Amino acid sequence: MTSAPFAPTVETNPAARTDAEREAILASPGFGNHFTDHMFLAEWTPEQGWHDARVVPYGPLQLDPATAVLHYAQEIFEGLKAYAWADGSVRVFRAEENAARLQRSAHRLALPELPQDWFLGSVDALVAADRAWVPEGGETSLYLRPFMFASEAFLGVRPSQHVTYCVIASPAGAYFPGGVKPVSIWLSTQYSRAGAGGTGAAKCGGNYAASLLPQQEAAQHGCQQVAFLDSTEQRWIEELGGMNLYFVQSDGSIVTPELSGSILEGITRESILTIARDLGHDVVERRVSIDEWREGTADGTITEVFACGTAAVVTPVGVLKWDGGEAVAGDGEAGKITMDVRSALVDLQYGRAEDRHGWMRRI
Ligand code: PLP
Ligand code: COI
């Protein structure tokens, strides 16, 4: 069934926060704590395709206890940011890539694909309704969280015949409190995030549920993030719970684990392939073993390690720990190449550098 043309209705929130309330939140937003005054919703059924696009006041969703997502986790999501530029415009970074990834995730989770114009239109409509919530100054942004879930009330295990798509927005400062400081990483040897043929490359809630216990284990060992290896050989580095990884080598080249089918295809990761090449580095996608991480940091072949993602931007990795040992790249502080890549990325996102690749969509 083809979907209706994208033409959302807009219902203004009569209980919107006052200017003073909003300003107080924007002064120190943190990450994921506060939500704007509106949200976007649309529905899908086999008969009607995508329909009923609407911007409505932000608020609770009422779900029947038998709603399929609550039982079988048929759910996918995205994450992207809108930035306030000095010229007064608001831009989103590579939203077309998020639209495409949501379609790939939908395919894997047997959910209906959302047309690209609906995805971009939903982002535009919500940001336009909540323009006042896009923070200005520093490294702040409006984090957008589009998600889609099985909303049919039915306990049989089959793809849902009613699906809801929603976008919420949250003003965001740094993901890691403390700003750009190296993070510590725990190597998960007991648990995997995803397996061959599984859902690792899809951005589905279940992957994150599977990462929470190892994330707790990381915290017990004093680490902020957890690194996962491939589930078959427990040898090849995949990624962190919510970020991809990069390794800077002593010859200035940069390596990132190749896409294995169980790694999330990060848009920041993909952008850094280009940005680092623009900065003159050789960039290689290949398998990286955990021994290479340990030995390379010990013998100086690996000089810097960093993590990247929409929420985390580019974050230096200080130490990797495991039962009985640890590996520190360089002096454990943020490396020069890491910070150069980071600056090139954020300068582009905030309009301080030329958008050579046409990545910033004006809303
Ligand atoms: N890997 C995982 C598991 C993630 O959740 C994320 C965050 O979205 C990333 C990598 C980075 O992806 P992106 O750069 O598209 O935000
Ligand atoms: C993002 O970077 O958008 C994510 O989804 C990662 C999550 C840890 C917040």
TrEMBL record:
<comment type="pathway">
    <text>Amino-acid biosynthesis; L-leucine biosynthesis; L-leucine from 3-methyl-2-oxobutanoate: step 4/4.</text>
</comment>
<dbReference type="InterPro" id="IPR018300">
    <property type="entry name" value="Aminotrans_IV_CS"/>
</dbReference>
<comment type="similarity">
    <text>Belongs to the class-IV pyridoxal-phosphate-dependent aminotransferase family.</text>
</comment>
<keyword id="KW-0100">Branched-chain amino acid biosynthesis</keyword>
<dbReference type="InterPro" id="IPR001544">
    <property type="entry name" value="Aminotrans_IV"/>
</dbReference>
<keyword id="KW-0663">Pyridoxal phosphate</keyword>
<keyword id="KW-0808">Transferase</keyword>
<dbReference type="GO" id="GO:0052655">
    <property type="term" value="F:L-valine-2-oxoglutarate transaminase activity"/>
</dbReference>
<feature type="modified residue" description="N6-(pyridoxal phosphate)lysine">
    <location>
        <position position="203"/>
    </location>
</feature>
<dbReference type="GO" id="GO:0052656">
    <property type="term" value="F:L-isoleucine-2-oxoglutarate transaminase activity"/>
</dbReference>
<keyword id="KW-0032">Aminotransferase</keyword>
<dbReference type="InterPro" id="IPR043131">
    <property type="entry name" value="BCAT-like_N"/>
</dbReference>
<dbReference type="Pfam" id="PF01063">
    <property type="entry name" value="Aminotran_4"/>
</dbReference>
<comment type="pathway">
    <text>Amino-acid biosynthesis; L-valine biosynthesis; L-valine from pyruvate: step 4/4.</text>
</comment>
<dbReference type="GO" id="GO:0052654">
    <property type="term" value="F:L-leucine-2-oxoglutarate transaminase activity"/>
</dbReference>
<keyword id="KW-0028">Amino-acid biosynthesis</keyword>
<dbReference type="GO" id="GO:0009097">
    <property type="term" value="P:isoleucine biosynthetic process"/>
</dbReference>
<dbReference type="InterPro" id="IPR043132">
    <property type="entry name" value="BCAT-like_C"/>
</dbReference>
<dbReference type="InterPro" id="IPR036038">
    <property type="entry name" value="Aminotransferase-like"/>
</dbReference>
<dbReference type="InterPro" id="IPR005786">
    <property type="entry name" value="B_amino_transII"/>
</dbReference>
<dbReference type="GO" id="GO:0009098">
    <property type="term" value="P:L-leucine biosynthetic process"/>
</dbReference>
<protein>
    <recommendedName>
        <fullName>Branched-chain-amino-acid aminotransferase</fullName>
        <ecNumber>2.6.1.42</ecNumber>
    </recommendedName>
</protein>
<dbReference type="InterPro" id="IPR033939">
    <property type="entry name" value="BCAT_family"/>
</dbReference>
<dbReference type="GO" id="GO:0009099">
    <property type="term" value="P:L-valine biosynthetic process"/>
</dbReference>
